[in-house]
Amino acid sequence: MKSYYVKLVVFSVLLFATAFFAGQKFGISLYYIVLLSVYFTGYSLILNKQLQKALNDSNKNKFTNAFLALTALKMFSSLFILLFGLYFTAENRLALGVCTMSYYMLYTGLEVWHWLGKLKQG
Questions:
Q1: What is the Cα gyration radius of the chain?
Q2: DSSP 40-105
Q3: Is the pTM of this model over 0.85?
């Protein structure tokens, strides 16, 4: 459990640094990058905690249902954050969209990679 938190912190710091430097080049607001970093890191923590509870539940379908529901919620809330960012940004909208979707894909990939490994262990 603690190893996931360490991986998540290291991953989040590296991704924030990369987004920060890319934001300087493409004109993405630091506030938006901080918002994305805090949101996706926090969501990953919540997702991990909820999936751990569902994995230990006697109903084995609970894990699948929780994973699908939380992933769908993350997808729609990420879309809302993207629309919010696009509404308040007059320029560099493409860069903002690429940054948001990169965060979404990278964090989703980390979560899937972690849980596939955990489920294979048994």
A1: 16
A2: HHHHHHHHHHHHHHHHTSS-THHHHHHHHHHHHHHHHHHHHHHHHHHHH-SS-HHHHHHHHHHHHH
A3: yes
Residue listed under structure tokens 């809302």: 80
Q: How far is CA 61 from CA 64, 65, 109, 118, 121, in A?
A: 5, 6, 22, 16, 18
Written as one letter, the residue type at 92 is N
Q: Determine the straight-line distance between the first and last CA of the chain, rounded to whole angstroms.
A: 14
Question: What pLDDT is recorded for position 90?
Answer: 84
Q: What single-letter amino acid sits at 26?
A: F
Ranges of the chain with pLDDT below 50: none
Cβ neighbourhood burial of 26 (10 Å; 0-12, 13-18, 19+): middle
pLDDT tens digit string along 70-92? 999 999 999 999 999 999 888 88
